[in-house]
Design brief:
single chain, 134 residues, alpha+beta, Aminopeptidase, 7-stranded mixed sheet, 7 strands, globular, Acyl_CoA_acyltransferase, GNAT_dom, acyltransferase activity, transferring groups other than amino-acyl groups, GNAT family acetyltransferase, N-acetyltransferase_domain
C-alpha cells in the first residue's frame, strides 16, 4: 500500500466518491496538499482529507477506504503517516471527529485519540470531537 499526496489526476476519483466536500473545494485541497491518496499497485483504494480547526490545529476531516481493503490496518497507517507529518511541521495536537452512531470513534480511541467534546446539530447525530497529543 502506498500513500501519496493527491494530484490533479486524482481529482475525478475524489469528487466521484467524497460527497462530504463541495466539488469546488477539491482542487484547493489538492493544491494545498491536504488530501492523501491510498493506492494498492497503482489502483486508488481510498483517501484521507484534512484541514485546520481554528486555522491552527490540524483536523482530519475524512478517511475513506474501499470496502474490500478495510480491516487490514490501512486506516491506522494513513493516520500515523499524517500524524508524523504534522509532528514534523511542529504541531503538538491533532483533532478529528465522528458521529456518535459510527464505529470510527472506537478506531480513533484505540490509536490514542481522546474525547474532547461534542457538537449537536439539529438534523444530525451527535458529533464526537477527538484530540491526540503528538
Amino acid at each position: 500500500m502506498e500513500i501519496e499526496l493527491a494530484t490533479e489526476k486524482d481529482y475525478k476519483y475524489i469528487v466521484e466518491r467524497d460527497k462530504h466536500i463541495p466539488e469546488i473545494l477539491v482542487r484547493t485541497k489538492i493544491k494545498e496538499k491536504e488530501i492523501f491518496i491510498l493506492k494498492d499497485s497503482e489502483k486508488e483504494i481510498g483517501w484521507m482529507r484534512y484541514g485546520y480547526f481554528w486555522d491552527n490545529i490540524p483536523f482530519m476531516n475524512m478517511i475513506s477506504i474501499d470496502e474490500e481493503y478495510r480491516g487490514q490496518g490501512i486506516g491506522k497507517k494513513i493516520v500515523l503517516h499524517w500524524e508524523e507529518i504534522m509532528r514534523q511541521r511542529g504541531f503538538k495536537l491533532v483533532m478529528t471527529s465522528t458521529q456518535s452512531d459510527e464505529e470510527a470513534q472506537h478506531f480513533y480511541r484505540k490509536i490514542g485519540y481522546r474525547d474532547a467534546g461534542c457538537l449537536l446539530l439539529e438534523t444530525q447525530p451527535l458529533e464526537v470531537i477527538l484530540t491526540k497529543n503528538l
